[in-house]
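Example for tutorial group B:
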């Protein structure tokens, strides 16, 4: 998938279980320009998932752009180098 800034991202399930369709829906919603976000971590709730973005320093070091959690499931969006 493509982030708003044009970066190509790999999205997937880090822990727990959910469908690929759900992962794509959540991150498309999170990255949508109209989704309200709070604070420096860009906290937002999308379809019951709590999502945050990594800081620029964290993202540069790990490649992880954003993480979303719902119950015991964690999904991630990472930059494809």
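The residue assignment follows.
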């Amino acid at each position: 998938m493509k982030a708003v800034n044009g970066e190509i991202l790999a999205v997937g399930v880090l822990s727990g279980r959910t469908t690929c369709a759900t992962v794509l829906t959540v991150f498309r919603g999170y990255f949508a320009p109209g989704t309200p976000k709070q604070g420096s971590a860009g906290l937002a709730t999308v379809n019951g998932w709590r999502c945050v973005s990594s800081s620029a320093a964290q993202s540069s070091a790990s490649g992880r752009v954003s993480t979303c959690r719902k119950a015991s499931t964690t999904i991630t969006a990472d930059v494809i180098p």
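The chain has one domain: 9-79. Compare this with the pattern of hydrophobic and polar residues in the output above.
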